[in-house]
Structures are given as C-alpha cells and as structure tokens.
UniProtKB/TrEMBL annotation:
Pfam families: Ank_2, IQ. Keywords: Activator, ANK repeat, Calcium, Calmodulin-binding, DNA-binding, Nucleus, Repeat, Transcription, Transcription regulation. GO terms for biological process: regulation of transcription by RNA polymerase II. PANTHER family: CALMODULIN-BINDING TRANSCRIPTION ACTIVATOR 5, CALMODULIN-BINDING TRANSCRIPTION ACTIVATOR CAMTA. Its main location: nucleus. It is found in: Nucleus. One of its GO terms (cellular component) is nucleus. SUPFAM superfamilies: Ankyrin repeat, E set domains, P-loop containing nucleoside triphosphate hydrolases. Gene3D superfamilies: 1.20.5.190, Ankyrin repeat-containing domain, Immunoglobulins. Belongs to the CAMTA family. This is Calmodulin-binding transcription activator. InterPro entries: Ankyrin_rpt, Ankyrin_rpt-contain_sf, Ig-like_fold, Ig_E-set, IQ_motif_EF-hand-BS, P-loop_NTPase. ANK repeats lie at residues 321-353.
C-alpha cells in the first residue's frame, strides 16, 4: 500500500513539472488579454477604502495637465487603488541560487470580495522576471524561477504582469562562486571600478601636480583668514581608519578605499588653500575639461562641498561641456551629493551647453530622468522651478506668491500620523502644487514683459492718440485674460473638489456641453434679433432720406476698406521682441513644462514617490548639518 501511494505521488509530481516547463514563459498576448479581463472585472468590484480626495484628475483647465503621457510604462492601468486582492501567508524557499532553476510554493487566500478571481491566471514578479504560476489548489501556487542576478529583489503576485495584487515581499538570489552568471557580471563591476579608479587618478593628478609660485604678503594675510576654516585636524579620521583596518570583519578593499579618500581629502584642503592664497578666482580644469568639484561629485565625496563653499569658489562652476557639479551628481544618481549641493546653495535651474540632441540644453532634472531616476528628477525639477521664480522675484516689478511658501512649510509639519504610502502621496501632491504655482508665476512674469515691450513698440511706431487707444485696448485685453485665468483656476479647483469619480465627471461634462449649446443658441438669437433691427433702421434711412430725399446713391457708394493712413501695423507690435529672445523664451517655456511633467511623474510610480521622499529627507538632513 505504501509503495502504491509513493508511485502515485511520483507520477503526480512528474505531471506537474511537465506543466511548469510548458507554462514557464507566457506569451505577451496572454498577459495583455489577462490584463484586459482583470481590469474589466475589477471595475465592477468595490475596493476597500475611500478614494483620496486630493488625487488630481487627468484633465485640468489650467493647460499644464495636457503633458501627462497616458502611455507611460510606469503608469499602466490604475487597477488597484489602495487595497490588496491576495494575502500571502507563507512562501518557501525564501532564497534561490542565481544560476539554477528553483521551484517556489506560495500559500495564501483571496479576500472575500475577490474570491471570484480565484480561477484567473496568476503571475509572479521576481525582480524583472515575470513567471507563470501553476495552481496546486485554491490559494496554493507553484512557480519555477530561472537564473537571475544575485541580490535581493521584490516579489509579489500579479494578474496583468505589472500591478501588484499582494504584499510586496523580499526574495533573495544568492550567487555561487565560480558560476557562469557571476563571471558574466564581473566585467560590469570591473568596468565601474576601473572608471572610478580613473576619476580618482585624475583628481590626484590635478591636486598633486601644481605650479609653485611666489605669493605676495597681502595674499598671505588674506589666506590666513580662511586657513582655519579649510584646514581641519585629520586625527579623528586616521583613528577611525586604523580601527577599520584592525577589525577582523573588515575587508582590505574598504580600508584601501577609505585610506585613498582620506589622502585626497587632506590634499584637497591644502590645494584649495593654495588657490585662495594665490588669488585664483576659479579652481581650473584638467586636460579632459573637468575640475576638482566635478570629479568629487562623480565620486560622491560629499565632504568636498563644504571645502569649496568655505573657500569662496562657486559650486556652479562649469566644465568644458557646461556641466556643473549638480549635473554630474544628478546624472549618476548621487542622492547624498545632490542633497549636499542643494543645501550649500547650488542652482538647480542651470542648463548645459546646447547639443544636437538637446538644442536648449539640459537641466539636472532632465539628466536624472534620462538615466531613470524619476524621483530624483521630480525633486530637482521642483527645486529648479522654485529657484528660478525666487531669482525672478528679486527683479523689479515681479510679485512673489506667498501661497507656495506656505505649502512648503505645511509639507513637513502636518502629516505625522499617516502611513508611509499616504505620506508619499501627500508629499507628491504638495510638490506638484509648488511646481505648478512657480511655473504659472514665471509664465505670468514673461507675459508681463512681453506686454511692456509691445506697448513700447506701439508708442514709438504710431501717433500719440492712436497709440494711446491701442495701448489702452491691449491693457484691457491683458487684464481680462488675467481675470479670466484666475476665474478658470478657481473654477478648476472647485471642479476638482466636487467631481472626482469618472461617472460624476462625465455627467458634469454632458451638462456643461448642453449649457454651452443653450448659451450659444441664446446669444445667437439675441445677435440676430438686434441685427435685424439695425438692418431695418439703416434700410429706412437709406431709402427715405438718401435715395428719395437727397437723390443720392445711398450706402452703395461707400467704400468698404479703411483709408491707407488709418491702418494700424499689427506686425510691428507682434515682432517687437528680438528674435533671439523669442527663441530663448520658447526654450525656457519648454523647460518649465518639462519640469512640471517630471513632478507629475510621481503619481505614476510608487517607487518614484519613495525616491522623492528619500531625497527630501536627505536634503533636510544635509541642511541641518550645514
């Protein structure tokens, strides 16, 4: 009897393994069809929890939301709002070899309102891999995962290949020494180590190879004032390094890195003091066009920022391509370096030199987004917009918006008892409000400047009375546009507060469309009625007085066009601004719109929201240290 049961178990296991081999790699069409079925069924299923009242709609009458790309791969179909469908109670094993196929069992159950989805096809996401599941029984699934890069990855269940329906857990791939996959990844690590070593060698060559010149006594006196600030006692750092070297658990590689960093730090202090005493205005560049601050930014040496700030050298010093230290840190995703630079006063709104790919240059946010750092790009875009507006507020005639400053203060004080996900959403909303407010104020300032230039051009090109009338009309139009824009903003805010769900919003759109049609019909009726009265009156005057009484031609002999001397040159007003200013303004407006879109990207991906929050905390910590 026991032998028979064992034979049945072996046959059943072999059949299941055959099914796993056949369904290990699902087709993309299966994923898409399954995603469509799941989205259709879930629209009819209630989700636990209320929809947040402050989640922005995809349409906005302000014009800034039109840049939201619905085809973004990170956005996807917003299937689940705040709830989970499947609860994972246990899974085994918790790790797998990075070079072998491993069988994983997951045990759990569906929530009550989602039990009708138990027969759906389930997929498991292990890092970047999507693996189909075999259902052993209801609530028990088996996965066959393949080789993967060693390290910890996120693991969760999904129905469409991208949206989690369960908790996001950790799964570990452990490397096997001497394996083929490890040997394939080793060249990548060696390449990064090689590039880092090259940067360290360039920095060392730039610091140690200097020209010794005689220094004037006056410069020595000035240099002695900052020597106490630049030069610091390295005794504590040497003691810490000695402890690391003597620790049995520490590695010699880390000790060597710390030793090299400490030597470069001490030499950089002396080198900066020599530049200050020598009366140099900048730090200079090496043969490849980068300066010490750019190399330190690439290497992530945050301690160098304080030295450059104390020395009086600009943190926005550009290399041969127009990149600042903040551009380098953003391009390589150095969050701590970006936080240190921002807290020290680096300008996040500067652009690089124009290239064939980017004729208008790139901001640090553009470079971070190009490398995939969405949260970092959103934070830099927000800071770039606010910094640009604050610099414009210092000029004459620009009004500062107090609402943005208040929002920034509430941003860090108000939400203490919320969960991490709710806090990330609140911070994303506050970031978008700050960015949208700054962008709208900047564009309003640009429009005011254009109005002033057009007014000046009209006053110079036309007679006094005629120019006064044209300028008055332009000012009335400008005031009406501003009033209409404010009214639209208030209406948009009111609409966003009352019409959140798609059904109510659809009814509102239909009602608004019908109201507009009724208003248009009524206005047309009024215009036609008044027009008929005017035509009748003019006809009576023409026939009774001009033709019959005066024996003249009537209104048929009057010319339709205006006299040549009364024509107004509208082109002069529209082309009053210089061509280069129009081009630069267009590029600036494109950058502002891109910056707002960077901040909008926070709503598309939870990973970007966590990255933004991590960047904000790092900036606050760096500002506290400063």
């Amino acid at each position: 009897m026991t032998r028979t049961l064992q034979q049945v178990h072996v046959n059943h296991a072999g059949a299941l393994e055959h099914q796993v081999d056949q369904s290990q790699y699902p087709l993309t069409s299966d994923l898409d069809s399954q995603s469509h079925q799941f989205a259709t069924s879930l629209r009819k299923t209630p989700v636990d929890g209320d929809i947040p009242n402050d989640v922005p709609a995809r349409e906005n009458s302000l014009g800034l939301w039109k840049y939201l790309d619905d085809d973004s791969p990170c956005l996807g179909d917003n299937i689940v709002s705040n709830g989970k469908i499947f609860n994972i109670t246990d899974f085994s094993p918790e790790w797998a070899c990075s070079t072998e196929h491993t069988k994983i069992l997951v045990i759990g159950d569906y929530y009550e309102q989602y039990k009708h989805l138990a027969g759906s096809n389930i997929y498991g996401i292990f890092g970047d891999n999507c693996v189909a599941a075999n259902m052993v029984q209801t609530g028990v699934y088996r996965f066959m995962v393949g080789p993967h890069t060693a390290g910890r990855v996120d693991f969760y269940l999904t129905l469409d290949g991208k949206t989690p329906i369960s908790e996001v857990l950790n799964f570990e791939y452990r490397s096997v020494p001497g394996s083929s996959l490890h040997s394939e990844l080793k060249p990548l690590e060696d390449e990064y180590t090689k590039s880092k070593l090259q940067m360290q060698m360039r920095l060392a060559r730039l610091l140690f190879v200097t020209n010794k010149k005689k220094i004037a006594p006056k410069l020595l006196v000035e240099g002695s004032k900052v020597s106490n600030l630049i030069l610091a006692s390295p005794e504590k750092e040497w003691m810490d390094l000695w402890k690391i070297a003597g620790d049995s658990e520490g590695t010699s590689v880390h000790a060597t890195e710390d030793l090299l960093e400490l030597v470069l730090r001490n030499r950089l202090q002396e080198w900066l003091l020599e530049r200050v005493i020598g009366g140099h205005k900048s730090t200079g560049r090496d043969d490849l066009g980068q300066g010490p601050i750019h190399l330190c930014s690439f290497l992530g040496y945050t301690w160098a920022i304080r030295l450059f700030s104390v020395s009086g050298f600009s943190l926005d010093f550009r290399d041969s391509s127009g990149w600042t230290a903040l551009h380098w840190a953003a391009y390589h995703g150095r969050e701590k370096m970006v936080a240190a630079l921002l807290s020290a006063g680096a300008n996040p709104s500067l652009v690089t030199d124009p290239t064939a790919v980017s004729p208008g240059g790139c901001t640090p946010a553009d470079l971070a987004a190009r490398q995939g750092y969405v949260g970092l790009a959103a934070y830099l875009a927000e800071k770039g917009l606010t910094a640009h507006f604050e610099s414009m507020s210092l000029s004459k005639g620009t009004k500062q918006s107090p609402s943005r400053t208040k929002l920034t203060k509430v941003h860090s004080e108000k939400f203490e008892n919320l969960t991490e996900q709710e806090l990330c959403l609140k911070e994303s909303l506050a970031a978008y409000r700050n960015a949208a407010d700054a962008a709208s104020n900047i564009q309003a300032a640009l429009r005011d400047r254009t109005l002033k230039l057009q007014t000046k051009a009209i006053l110079l090109a036309n007679p006094e009375m005629q120019a006064t009338a044209i300028v008055a009309a332009m000012r009335i139009q400008h005031a009406f546009r501003n009033y209409n824009r404010k009214k639209e903003m208030r209406a948009a805010a009111r609409i966003q507060n009352h019409f959140r769900t798609w059904k109510v919003r659809r009814n509102f759109k239909n009602m608004r469309r019908q109201a507009i049609r009724i208003q248009a019909a009524y206005r047309g009726h009024q215009v036609r009625r008044q027009y008929r009265k005017v035509i009748w009156s003019v006809g009576v005057v023409e026939k009774a007085i001009l033709r019959w009484r005066k024996k003249r031609k009537g209104l048929r002999g009057i010319a339709n066009g205006m006299p040549a001397e009364m024509t107004v040159d509208v082109e002069a007003a529209s082309t009053a601004e210089e061509g280069f200013f129009q081009a630069s303004r267009q590029q600036a407006e494109d950058r502002f719109n891109r910056s707002v879109v960077r901040v909008q990207a926070l709503f598309r991906c939870h990973r970007a929201q966590h990255e933004y929050r991590r960047m904000r905390i790092a900036h606050e910590e760096a500002a506290g240290v400063q």
